[in-house]
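Fill in residues.
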């Protein structure tokens, strides 16, 4: 019991995943600043921002549903932490995998955006409700190609829906990424992760210049800190899921950890490049985009995987 609690709260769960996610956020801010000829923040700035929020008070807007408003940040951070913990524990020990753990992880990663959406609705602020509405439409658009792309590593690993089974398959046959269907599936997943994290060009649910951060608008203090931490943990867990599905997982040797760190940085760089070279799109444009190009690429990838390519 104590061992499981340690894994969830410390390593590889809440503290570890949150720290890596906040460092990833600093890396994003630093690279973005350099591209814009700015200096950017120091490495500990995101940690200080979170600590500062925990020292402040959470204000409750008039007319808000208090219980839902307060419960959603807790639900968001619990879902993201549990997903990250499962991914890392199975990477450490593939033998502890269980049937359907991949499906469990996918559904756990849906909890943070759903919680944020419900929290926005519960606040009673019309701008937060608009952000929640956009988040709902965005989720409906990217989940279809995301799930279709997920079929490729499942099919290639002998139709296994176990993370441990997919890791074991790649240890014997090489990374799934080194195939035509694997590359197409990876590209689709990367675009969907961009939307899941709310990065430009898919940041319309927050859109600071339009709806003043949308669903976040009424959150402050510890509640806002937990929402930001949940997003930071996803910024670690989602690339870690890609490494697990397409690059053979995280191998806990000196060379394996170094390779995994380089793969993680490469995925972050790709997302940062997309973020800094594209303007924000409207929600209707995002829906059309995901239901057309990524969905078509995902279907093609599934067909190629079925053919063994």
């Amino acid at each position: 019991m104590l061992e499981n609690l340690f894994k969830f709260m410390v390593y590889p769960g809440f503290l570890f995943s949150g720290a890596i996610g906040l460092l990833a956020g600093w890396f994003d801010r630093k690279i973005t600043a350099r591209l814009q000829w700015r200096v950017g923040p120091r490495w500990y700035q995101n940690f200080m921002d979170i600590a500062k929020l925990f020292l402040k008070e959470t204000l409750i807007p008039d007319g808000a549903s208090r219980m839902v408003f307060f419960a959603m940040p807790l639900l968001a951070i619990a879902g993201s932490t549990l997903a990250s913990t499962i991914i890392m524990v199975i990477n450490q020990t593939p033998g502890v995998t269980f049937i359907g753990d991949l499906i469990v992880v996918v559904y756990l990663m849906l909890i943070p955006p759903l919680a944020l959406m419900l929290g926005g609705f519960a606040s009673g602020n019309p701008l937060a409700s608009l952000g929640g509405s956009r988040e709902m439409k965005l989720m409906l658009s990217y989940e279809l190609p995301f799930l279709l792309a997920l079929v490729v590593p499942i099919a290639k690993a002998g139709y296994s829906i176990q993370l441990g089974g997919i890791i074991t398959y790649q240890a014997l046959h090489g990374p799934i990424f080194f195939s035509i269907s694997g590359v197409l599936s990876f590209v689709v997943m990367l675009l969907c992760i961009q939307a899941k994290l709310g990065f430009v060009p898919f940041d319309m649910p927050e859109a600071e210049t339009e709806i003043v951060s949308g669903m976040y608008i009424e959150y402050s203090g510890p509640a806002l800190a937990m929402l930001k931490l949940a997003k930071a943990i996803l910024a670690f867990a989602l690339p870690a899921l890609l490494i697990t599905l397409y690059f053979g997982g995280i191998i806990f040797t000196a060379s394996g950890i170094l390779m995994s760190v380089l793969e993680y940085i490469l995925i972050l760089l790709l997302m940062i490049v997309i973020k800094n070279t594209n303007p924000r799109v409207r929600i209707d444009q995002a829906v059309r985009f995901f239901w057309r190009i990524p969905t078509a690429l995902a279907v093609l990838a599934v067909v190629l995987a079925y053919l063994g390519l």
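Residues 2-306 form one domain.
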